[in-house]
Design a protein that fits this description.
With 306 residues, the protein is of the alpha/beta class. It contains seven helices and 14 strands. The chain has two domains: 200 residues, Rossmann fold, CATH 3.40.50; 79 residues, Methionyl-tRNA Fmet Formyltransferase, Chain A, domain 2, CATH 3.10.25. The strands form three sheets. A seven-stranded mixed β-sheet has the order 3-2-1-4-5-7-8, with helices on both faces. The protein has a five-stranded antiparallel β-sheet with strand order 10-11-14-13-12. The termini are far apart.
Length: 306
């Protein structure tokens, strides 16, 4: 079974590596070009796998228009039996979807049909979910709407951050691909329609969407910070017109003050919210390096975000 892989990001690199290590035949690889690194969360270079396995590979910046035509012709020349797409936010077009006789298999780190769309790892944490999942599905023109091939639940722990949870869902995705490739090759892979009555969609997130609203509860803001920490663009607030990123925090005690007010600084900074305080442990003024709140100059009485 000749496989065409279209991949990007750390998750795409990890899944491709697992597929290669399983002995599967990757006839062609399309990977996201380094030109997209600045605007792609968790961008990854595929050069190591290309060299190690002597892959027939080509980079792409888009799968649409004239530039996308080059990628399509490269993929068509490989005459793939199966397509796999992982970590690519751009939808595979109809023409490329029809190339492999077995179609394309996509991966989404939620329990589809819940959480279709963008930023599934951050949204799961922002919504304070206790579990998420990984779904392999048969790709179609819509986003994350195809029939389900396989699915596994993944717990969300209280100390999870976006990279911790993402690493755990990546582990599951790698394993599910390897487990299901033989079934696809033999033609006995399951196919279950998604229940549209259970569907939900999460919107795209932009860097500017990370602003901290101190009028929310300390729990909500803890979820906000851990969801948007690196490799995502970060949660941020401001003081006297200067942007301040918050990279790590913990739910604080029940001391109450004006939301956004720094109540005390003892290495960490304790900032009042709508309910209790948020204990901030790592910050960064825009243009500076990461520091403890105390080293960054935060002090009791400062009002953040005002």
């Amino acid at each position: 079974m000749k496989i065409l892989v279209v991949a990007a990001r750390v998750v795409g690199h990890r899944c491709l590596q697992a597929i290669l290590e399983s002995g599967a035949e990757v006839a062609a690889l399309l990977y996201l070009d380094d030109a997209k690194a600045a605007v792609t969360v968790a961008h990854e270079d595929f050069a190591d796998l290309v060299a190690q396995y002597g892959l027939n590979a080509r980079s792409f910046t888009t799968l649409k228009g004239e530039k996308g035509r080059v990628a399509f012709e490269f993929a068509a020349a490989a005459k793939p039996d199966l397509g796999i797409v992982v970590g690519v936010s751009e939808l595979i077009g109809d023409e490329m979807l029809k190339l492999p006789r077995l179609g394309f298999i996509g991966m989404h780190p939620t329990l589809l049909p819940q959480g279709r769309g963008r930023a599934p790892i951050p949204w799961a944490l922002i919504h304070d979910l206790k579990e998420t999942g990984v779904t392999l599905f048969y790709a179609e023109p819509g986003a994350d709407t195809g029939d389900i091939l396989d699915q596994e639940r993944v717990p969300i722990f209280d100390n999870d951050t976006a990279p911790l949870l993402g690493s755990r869902t990546d582990d599951v995705a790698c394993r599910l691909f390897v487990q299901n490739l033989p079934k696809l090759a033999l033609g006995n892979a399951p196919r279950l329609k998604q229940d549209e009555s259970m569907a939900s969609e999460w919107p795209r997130r932009r860097p500017e969407d990370g602003v901290i609203n101190w009028s929310k509860t300390s729990r909500a803001l803890y979820n906000w910070v851990r969801a948007l920490t690196r490799p995502y663009p970060g949660a941020f607030t401001s003081y006297e017109g200067q942007k301040l990123f918050v990279w790590a925090s913990e739910p604080g005690d029940e001391r109450v003050s004006v939301p956004g007010m720094v109540v005390k600084v003892d290495g960490a900074a304790w900032v009042a919210t709508a309910s209790g305080t948020l204990k901030i442990t790592s910050v960064q003024w825009e243009g500076s390096s990461d520091a403890s709140p105390e080293a960054a100059g935060l002090a009791a009485g400062m009002r953040l975000g005002a």
